[in-house]
Amino acid sequence: MKIAAADVFVSSPGRNYVTLRVTTDDGRTGLGDATLNGRELAVAAYLREHVAPLLIGRDAHAIEDTWQYLYRGVYWRRGPVTMAAIAAVDTALWDLKAKAAGMPLYQLLGGASRTHVRAYGHANGGTIEELLESVAARVAEGFGAVRVQAGVAGLGPVYGVADGDGPYEPARRQATPPVERWDTRAYLRHIPTVFAAVRDRFGPELDVLHDVHHRLTPMQAARLGATLEEFDPYWLEDVTPAENQEALALVRRHTTVPIATGEVFNTVLDYQYLIRDQLIDFARSSVTHAGGITALRRIFDHAALYQIRSAVHGPSDISPVGFAAALHLDLALHNFGIQEYMPHPAEAAEVFHVAYRYADGALHPGEAPGLGVEFDEPAAARHPYRPAPLPVCRLADGTVHDW
Ligand code: CS2
Ligand code: MG
Description:
Blueprint: E1 3-11, E2 17-24, E3 29-33, H1 40-55, H2 63-71, H3 80-101, H4 105-108, E4 117-125, H5 128-140, E5 145-150, E6 179-181, H6 184-202, E7 207-211, H7 218-228, E8 235-237, H8 247-252, E9 259-261, H9 272-276, E10 282-283, H10 292-304, E11 309-310, H11 320-332, E12 339-340, H12 348-351, E13 352-354, E14 357-359, E15 362-364, E16 373-375, H13 377-381, E17 392-394, E18 400-401
Parallel strand pairs: 4-5, 4-12, 5-7, 6-17, 7-8, 8-9, 9-10, 10-11
Antiparallel strand pairs: 1-2, 2-3, 4-15, 13-16, 14-15, 17-18
């Protein structure tokens, strides 16, 4: 099974996706996701110009060797662009190997460790009342775990809150990044009232998650965690900027609130102290951004030594290919925690035909061989790339803040 072609597609069915399709000399195809939200064309060029030519003629079964060749072999290691490109190749080769074996991918990863993958849904609202309606909608869909994000009075659109009736989507189809306002003190005053309202309406059993999106200092995060403990959050996510692992040691000293992080990490080394020093409870990297199934499995195996569980990043900017890969891993891992589930835009179903399914707060990758995703090339061509940057955040005096 030698690689005969490696084609890169950038399509925009509702939002942008970068898809790699590897074709073998015996006519099989494998898919990988290389979507890097707002920087899609950089990964597409990396794959087309620097990776695809090296793949032709290689043994498609040699997954580990290909991973090491693309990681160690280039000298310039790590980084979101490189690791998304490696992830796409790795995922496509696992898809091919599982198809050749005639099995769903989770069987090659050790088989199912559970009957289904528990998921959390997103609820948001410009006001607390709107948020409560949104939580009620998720609960009615069967979710027992819900991420809550609410607007802060006076700030206008903020991270996690939908602009209009549709689901929340941070990237905007416009030439330059939208600007959002931020005020940490207003947020810190507001968020305990959000948790109080959610607990008051939905009781103690609902698992309530919240994403801080990297905006606080360690001491602000520590205080927030301590304040929210009485509401028993399932986790607080990305409380401080991701570059400084030691920040979470300060947070940990002051609160027992569970901490989740990792969606912007791209290698196990980004977790080096977080895992060894037990500073987190959930590791949130994705197949798409952390170097593929091979690399993410290693991150979770390392985390398992310290009772840290998986919580794979699953926003709409992970394509159905990357999302299916996550579900296979989730089903097989022993230290699975929970899976984020943010449905894709409706048009994505024209381009990606998926075997995975959602029911009653849970997902299953399905029994189709490989990942269980078919890519419709003509449909993708009907949805050409459109630039869609992520927002930037500014304080009242114009200073750029962490988004
Ligand atoms: C997020 C994302 O899913 C999450 O928890 O923080 O929505 C994130 O903002 C996007 O993936 C950015 O591309
Ligand atoms: Mg997040």
